[in-house]
Design goal:
single chain, alpha/beta, Rossmann fold, about 35% helix, about 30% strand
Amino acid sequence: MSDVLRVENLRKVFRSGDHDLVLFEGLTFSVAQGEMLAIVGESGCGKSTLLHILGALDRASSGEVFFGDTRLTGLSDEAAADFRGRDLGYVWQFHYLLPEFSALENIAMPLLMSANGKQKRSPYDLAAGWLKEIGLSDRGHHRPGELSGGEQQRIALARALVAGPKVLLADEPTGDLDNKSAEMVFELISRLHRERQLTSVIVTHNMDFARRCTRVLRLSGGRLTQE
């Protein structure tokens, strides 16, 4: 099975006053096609920063990240934005839905923004299909403020996947939810991962969820170890 993501000797340093703060260094790992990888670790250890680098939202201080044959660390800002819109779905701990738009419109937004004309169906038809997929067909005309936390995160997940990305990156996707809603969202992520044949990288502090992934890596002291 081929590798979708490959990380080589990654290092991230922040300048703090007169000193360099090394968040992590020497990170080398790969993510195989179809794998669901969990990254765990204490708060502040650099998990989210690592995920941002994998998603071309941040740049490493040194090292390389490859997506297939594409060298992410060499992309311009514009090319990185194109890459994210085309190949990645991203879910954060907070849903970041646009409050003035309905659930249907929020899901359709990535397609409306890209306006590439490649979709055979309209963005709203595709969004309606995703509402059915996540079990919220009856909530399409509700705005985010009228939805529960679990419903908001399910809408955010549908928005992340509506354009058909190959890779899902999720940063604490259940961190703000109660136990019942968190379980529902994680089960939804797991099902969509299988059915859509995704490759997924999930940052989580929930070890129960992490152990249900294909593999678990722990980031601690600036280094990655396999659980």
